[in-house]
Amino acid sequence: MAYLTFTKSVEIEYGPGNFVAVDVNENNVTVSVFRNNILADVYRVETHLGGMVIAYAERRRRITEGKSTRTREARRKLRKLREKERKLDILRKTDGFIEKLAIKNKAVVVIGNLDWKAKEDMERGKNAKLRHRK
Fold first, then answer.
1. Is 17 helix (H, G, I), strand (E, B) or coil?
2. Domains of the chain by residue range
3. I want to staple 18 with a disulfide (CB 3.0 to 4.6 A). Which of 27, 72, 103, 107 is the partner?
């Protein structure tokens, strides 16, 4: 098996004081648009991923309660949940919105610096239902 990786060089045009700042939270994404280093617009995109993750964790628990996940019935029910596809759909739509906003304003996208312990810090003090977040 071989994996091929393709790269593409792209020339981008952006204003030196134009940027889009993105803050990602569990249930929303906040996007701030700066033009000429001045705050122009602020958008809040509701994703509701936090509640969705907890709901899917509870459904997975009910499906596998007292059973092995290797049985045909359990695998079929887990496949029908389509959790990954739904979460990716929300994330791709949000990503597309941010990309279009950056292209329209000829801006660079800036994302906060997350260290390797960010997830552990966010989950500290939470109950065990939130451990399935990805």
1. coil
2. 19-113
3. 107
**Residue 81: CB partners within 8 Å, gap ≥ 6?**
56, 59, 60
Rounded to the nearest angstrom, the gap between the alpha carbon of residue 43 and the centroid of all alpha carbons in its chain is 16
Return the exposure string of 48-69: e unless at least 16 CB atoms fall within 10 Å of the residue's CB, then b.
ebeeebeebbeebeebeeeeee
3 state DSSP class of 85:
helix
Residues 75-96 have pLDDT tens digits of 888 888 888 888 899 989 999 9
Residues 6 or more apart from 48 whose CB is under 8 A from it? Answer: 27, 90
9: phi then psi, degrees, rounded to nearest 5? -85, 130
Residue positions counted in the chain: 134
Q: Are 80 and 63 in contact (CB under 8 A)?
A: no
